[in-house]
Amino acid sequence: MEYRVKGNKITAALLCVFIAAVCFWTSRSFLEMRKPDMLIPAPGFNLHMLSEWEPGLKGTNADTPVYIQEGEKPGGTVYIQGGIHANEPAGFMAAIMILERAHVKQGRLIVVPFVSMSARTHNSPQDAAPQTFKIDQPGGKFRVFKFGSRATNPVDQWPDPDIYIHQPSKQKLDGSSRSNMNRSFPGSLNDGITQRAGYAVMQLLKKEKVNLAFDLHEASPEYPVVNAMVAHENASELAAMVCMELEGRGIPMRLEPSPVNLRGLSHREWGDAVPGLMALLMESGNPSQGRLRGKTDEALVLTGKDKAYLKASKMGLLFIPYEGDQPIALRTARHVTAVKIAMDTLGTLVEGKDVAVENIPTYEDIKDKGIGPWLNKAN
After folding, report:
1. Are the C-beta atoms of residues 150 and 184 closer than 8 Å to each other?
2. Residues with Cβ < 8 Å from 16, sequence gap 6 or more?
3. Fewest C-beta atoms under 10 Å: which of 180, 261, 278, 353?
4. 3-state DSSP call for residue 247?
5. How many CA atoms lie within 13 A of 354 on its CB side?
6. Nearest to residue 211, comparing CAs of 114, 120, 109, 98?
7. What is the structure's pLDDT at 5?
């Protein structure tokens, strides 16, 4: 049976206008994700780009800002990165808060808020994830940040193979791991942009002689390694001291050893490749990432309120304390506080590598007052 669509030049023109409008609207939404987030560093930070440590990144969507502040007195060097997974907001919000507050008195501080910049240029529309979230500030002000993806943008690196063979270990991983920057280390110049960015980070850690490095993450509340610090064996003593201090303050923190047999992870490859480097990864519990969640919207990202997670908590299925919410301020406070304790402790374990950083808000300040008061206001 043959079907004919009846119409004329007017209906054809209207259809074309409608299609053009849809394309225009969707392209605007797509391009919005490429606009940079506003960052207002504290005085004393100097801006660099990751491509300074790997020139092949220059001009690509994987190049990203690197901020360095040096104190008046010599000491250790601390590296803090957030956003390796751009859908884990407490990780990059902690890095941003430190960037916008820190005053380094001794040693040197390197902050990379968005280490996987390509992952910030898209998100997960099939999960109905929001593109942005808003942080309120006093006086009616607010700051907006993108909610990105776990993976490199397919525009920058595509396709993923069925099986990804990590280099140089030759370990076989699932194909999507090729676009996961936290499977890219120690990096490669002979693969995709993700691996090149991983290589650039490794060069930074080596050339800047970093003593202590943090990779800030979030994880599903039902994931066993959550509210946890994962430590390379080089950092095991420091990590134990930090976890004990946190527990003493009533902040639960598990200590997990870095798995030797799983390659490509930041803490494993950094600690193996950089002499004397103490490598730590931290996870906070984020319901907006979990598979038990309901509607994935801005409210869930900010509050962590979800009926399914409350029910799962009552059934004993979660690995974090959950009484109906898990706000981003609490998750960010955990990261900032752990980083501050570790920086304060470094000099007691490594002679001559003291680091003194002032003006960092306390756990209670962030948890009770929110993130907004501790970020700088735009003019």
Report:
1. no
2. none
3. 261
4. helix
5. 9
6. 109
7. 61
Backbone angles phi, psi at 31, to 5 degrees: -75, -25
pLDDT on residue 9: 82
341: which 2 tokens? 């304790």
User: Is the model's pTM score more than 0.85?
Assistant: yes
Query: Domains of the chain by range and CATH?
Result: 40-374 (3.40.630)
Q: Mean pLDDT of successive 10-residue segments in the chain (379 residues)? A: 69 87 80 92 98 98 98 98 98 98 98 98 86 96 96 96 97 97 98 98 98 98 97 98 98 97 97 97 96 94 97 97 96 98 98 98 98 93
What span, in angstroms and rounded, lies between the C-alpha atoms of 109 and 103? 9
- φ/ψ of 247, rounded to 5, equals -60, -40
Phi, psi of 266, rounded to the nearest 5 degrees: -55, -55
Distance set, CA 230 to CA 24, 225, 251 (Å): 45, 8, 16
Residue with tokens 């050893």: 257
Q: What pairing do the DSSP bridges indicate for beta strands 65-70 and 103-112?
A: antiparallel
* Residue entry with tokens 């849809």: 22
Residues near 277 by beta carbon (within 8 Å), at least 6 away in sequence: 205, 210, 211, 212, 213, 232, 234, 270, 271
